[in-house]
Amino acid sequence: MEIIDGDRGKNYPKQEEFFKNEYCLFLNAKNVTDSGFAFSELNFITKHKDEILRKGKLKRNDLVLTTRGTVGNIVFYDDRVPFENIRINSGMVIIRPVDIDPKFNYQLFKFLKNDFLSFASGSAQPQLPIRDMREIEVNLPPLPEQKAIASVLSSLDDKIDLLHRQNKTLESMAETLFRQWFIEGAKEDWEERELSYYGDIICGKTPSKKIHSYFNGDIPFIKIPDMHGNIFLFKTADSLTEKGKQSQTNKTLPPKSICVSCIATVGLVSMNTIESQTNQQINSIIPKKDHYRYFLYLTMKSSYDLLNSMASGGTATLNLNTGDFANIPTLYPGNDTLIAFQGSVETYFNKIFANQSQINTLETLRDTLLPKLMSGAVRVTF
Predict the structure, then answer these.
(1) What is 191-332's CATH number?
(2) Rounded Cα gap, residues 271 and 258, in angstroms
(3) Nearest to residue 264, comparing CAs of 331, 302, 333, 316?
(4) 122: pLDDT strictly greater than 70
(5) What value does the mean pLDDT take over residues 132-136?
(6) What is the DSSP string of 312-362?
(7) pLDDT in tens, 241-260
(8) Interval 124-151 mean pLDDT
């Protein structure tokens, strides 16, 4: 395989050379996630600028690996990616397959993520030196076995991707209904209430890290990275023990509370699936009535710009405090309307919940198989 750095020369694009719609997509760290390309906040460069850059242009079947800041995120530039011209920035590298099956190459680099993390250096902004990457030794099976392994793992990835796309469609349908009912169909006599009218507002907190017995239990401890791309939270990177939960019982959220990120990355919205707690970067709403739940979720989803403007406050780091969050003016169309709306969208969210449950099961199976197939502990016939 070939490791290709981005172009860091004198022609590297300046901020004023980025556009919202142009010839070539120029990737940044937000576009390369563990779950694939994220096509939000896209930056483009002109065809002229693209032509004068020397390195860092993607070809189909390449991988993109993040090497600075968030280290080890990897995406596969296959035929499903809807852009023909893509370049990388200086915080990532291209992995180009040579004498290796491209899909196997993708699975291999997912398997190697922990090795990448062990090589990362720098506390403020971790970096993965390319010279260290080149020293990682791997055992490659014969090409036919590579294809067979890739087929097994790719079939799971494809099913997971299909379910994610279904969920995006279902959420979009719910958002369309929300707009029709409460934006386009808003009545002049509808009132406004503070957000706290609808539910108890809880600002999360991290238990003392000095007490190790508070952590690594069965109670999800939600942080902002857990929320990306997830409507319902079936798993979190960190967890609390019962003792950890009891150390701050007033921070416990019942299932399907609405969690909203309010510091640094503002405006992500998710719901927990079982009793959970969050860190201090998240404000949550515990609905006072069940039929408030999806109205509140969709209200928060539609309030991204408002939340970010409230959090700006003239500081470098966005911060929407709990008091201001609780006082957000929120439409109150009446109890009967909210009950009727809940009935209209509940089917969508129930299906999303079932899909995400299946995604969680498939991801667990895939993540269990991956190291066994890559190490040769489990062999695939071909």
Answers:
(1) 3.90.220.20
(2) 5
(3) 316
(4) no
(5) 80
(6) HTTSSS-B--HHHHHT-EEEE--HHHHHHHHHHHHHHHHHHHHHHHHHHHH
(7) 999 999 999 999 999 999 99
(8) 87
Condensed to tens digits (0 to 9), the pLDDT of residues 302-335 reads 999 999 999 987 667 899 999 999 999 999 999 9
Indicate the SS3 state at residue 162.
helix
Cα three-residue angle 215-218-223, rounded to 5 degrees: 65
Contacts of 82 (CB under 8 A, 6+ apart): 39
Residue 113, CA distances (Å) to 6, 72, 107, 124, 371 in order: 20, 6, 10, 20, 11
Sign of the dihedral through C-alpha 81, 86, 92, 95: positive
* Angle at CA of residue 73, ends 231 and 277, nearest 5°: 40
Bridge-based pairing state of the strands 24-26 and 86-87: parallel
77: which 2 tokens? Answer: 């530039």
With the CA atoms of 67, 108, 36 and 68 taken in that order, what torsion angle do they form, in degrees rounded to the nearest 10? -10
pLDDT on residue 237: 94
pLDDT class for 32, splitting at 50, 70, 90?
very high
pLDDT over 80 at 149, yes or no: yes
CA–CA distance from 231 to each of 106, 175, 268, 317, 382 (Å)?
26, 13, 9, 25, 39
Are 169 and 355 spatial neighbours (Cβ–Cβ below 8 Å)? Answer: no
Closest CA to 301 of 269, 326, 261: 269
Give the per-residue pLDDT at 123: 62
Which of the four pLDDT bands, split at 50, 70 and 90, describes residue 115?
Answer: confident
Question: Rounded CA gap, 185 and 242, in Å?
Answer: 46
The CATH number that domain 2-137 falls under is 3.90.220.20
* Number of continuous H segments (helices) and E segments (strands) in the chain: 11, 19
pLDDT of 270 strictly over 80: yes
Pairwise CA distance, residues 275 & 282, whole Å: 15
